[in-house]
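Provenance

Sequences were taken from public entries as deposited. Structures were produced by running a predictor on each sequence independently, with no templates supplied. The record for homoisocitrate dehydrogenase from Eremomyces bilateralis CBS 781.70 is shown for reference.
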Amino acid sequence: MVLKTLRIGLIPGDGIGREVIPAARRVLEALPASLKLKFEFTHLDAGFETFQKTGAALPDRTVEVLKKECDGAMFGAVSSPSVKTAGYSSPIVALRKRMNLHANVRPVKSTLSRSATTAHLKPIDLVIVRENTEDLYVKEERTYDTPDGPVAEAIKRISTKASRKIATTAGEIALRRQRIRDSTGVKPNEGQTAPRVTITHKSNVLSQSDGLFRECAQAVLKQDQFKSLIVDEQIVDSMVYKLFQVPESYDVIVAPNLYGDILSDGAAALVGSLGLVPSANVGSDFVIGEPCHGSAPDIEGKGIANPIASIRSAALLLEFLGEEQAAAAVHQAVDACLEEGLIITPDLGGKSSTEEVLLDVLKRM
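Predicted structure for homoisocitrate dehydrogenase:
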């Protein structure tokens, strides 16, 4: 039997990243032999502790190995210093820039079980696709004096190229989600008859910048390759309200950088814990899976960190590497664990350990 080899860089980072990334690795290694996959893993350094030891939060070697030797990567978590630290900047932000990762993809999914802490009675299964390179995050600011005191200004940059690219990514994700549903027999959200992409913007006020984003996204999603999609749009403030009121109405949401950042963090509250929420940083030829939680120093070393976000991030990694069947196998095992609701970590109101959750997921694979 000929096996396909995937070379994965593992960047545990700080804190509980060193506990959940090994869990994700074990899940990848446990994929059924029928999928004909094998993995080669390379351990790489990044994070605040790496900065303290070496003076670099993101060593050049880490980037070089990712570019030359890896098909994808998993990133754990990063600690942020509590005071301004000369020479330090976030390694994951730097990694996104140096690896040209234009999209941050964050699925938000709940399951109905006795462990559920969400107030919503209907399952939530949506994805927020956030443009990752521009908007206010270009960090071009200035402050100048006026007779009435200092005034600060910031550049909000929206480009045709980046807007078209993120809309294309959102459309492709919607189509892939439907393929995975079809292959596993999972039904779409209630009331949805086809995969849907919702364009989020504020073009009623920002007619040039957000207006350009809206126009580009609409043009891309009208192309023949996306003809099976339902495409709608939502003003961002109304989007926030509806996301919390009827999250089950959404499938894929695409937004500029700032709105996507706010919506994705808020949406995590809908499912009860950041310990459940994965993400992927996606470029044209590389992807990094990354759980959305932080380094959680308060529980570091206690063996109770929730590994689900990391495991789901590994499934996302597989999706973007074209291994949809393998991704579906991981998603199904995680969902079954959560639906039963017997093996759950303290962040969800349980008493299970990281290892117990991992073993339960492995058993279901």
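The first strand starts at residue 4 and ends at 13.
The CA atoms of residues 2 and 292 lie 35 Å apart.
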